[in-house]
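Supplementary notes for students who missed Thursday's class. We covered one full example, reproduced here. Read the sequence, then the structure, then the short commentary at the end.
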Amino acid sequence: MRKKVRQMRKHSLKFISLFTAIFLWMYVQNSETVKFEKTVALDFSLPSDMVFAETPVQEVIFMIEGPRAFVRNVSEREDRLLIDLNRGGARKQQNFGIDIVPTQLSLPFGMVVERVLPRKINIKLEKKALKKVPIKPRFIGSFPEGLSFAKTEVQPKEIEIWGPQSLIKNIKEVTTTPIDREALIGATSVNLELIQRDERIVYEVLQPPKLNYQLKASKSNVVLRDLPIRYLTQNKKARANTGTATVRLLVPESMKERGNLALAPSVQVWADIPGQSEGQVEASLRAILPPGVHLVDISPRSIIVNLE
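Structure (token representation):
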């Protein structure tokens, strides 16, 4: 019995010794002093009538020394420093330096900042200017022969910009990224992307700019004859002096290769009859076309319709 008690005490002492050794090893490892770098982003608060003449640095690096136990917590947390430039001298001096003080970064007990890079930030301010300028689309490429713009309209036509006064006064317009003319075929509008000329200039985009347009064809490569005329009217009976029309179209080569018989079912001719019309009226003809197909001419352009 005593022998068993002695063995248990012996094993207990071994466990205690092992636990103590592990605890001391962990303590020593975590209390070891280490050095590391931490990058901190800067936020600037400017006077409402001023902007940066030159964009300052957006982050600084803190060289920190302290116990290893706190390194992960400090290095992984997101810290930002607010640089307040709302002081009287900012409007008068405009060019000055701001010191980054080590104590601006909150650290656990035992950690210290050895140095900051850069220690001083150069600030250059300028009066803020606002201006409205037109949006100018920039086109590249070309349409197929015989196709061109019938009408183009940019919405909105103007955009408000603001930034340093010295830059804003020289800007007459804002251009778009290149628009390929060939990519416009088959649609009537396209979203526009504005070119950012300088990061110090801000575009006030209230709604995404868009180009609305219509294309026209000056020559045809397909003629469809004897297309039935449909009537857009509330009258149950409508009779016309002719029941068919001929349309001249400019179509892509891929559609042309399929032949007129394949294209004809997708082309519709309608007679627009004014509402509340009675008796004999003249109705204009219009064509509804598949994407990518453009009307050159429709014959006849109008017909006489008898309404009953």
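Commentary. Residues 2-31 form the longest helix (30 residues). Helices lie at 2-31, 71-76, 88-93, 165-168, 253-256, 260-263. If anything here is unclear, bring it to office hours.
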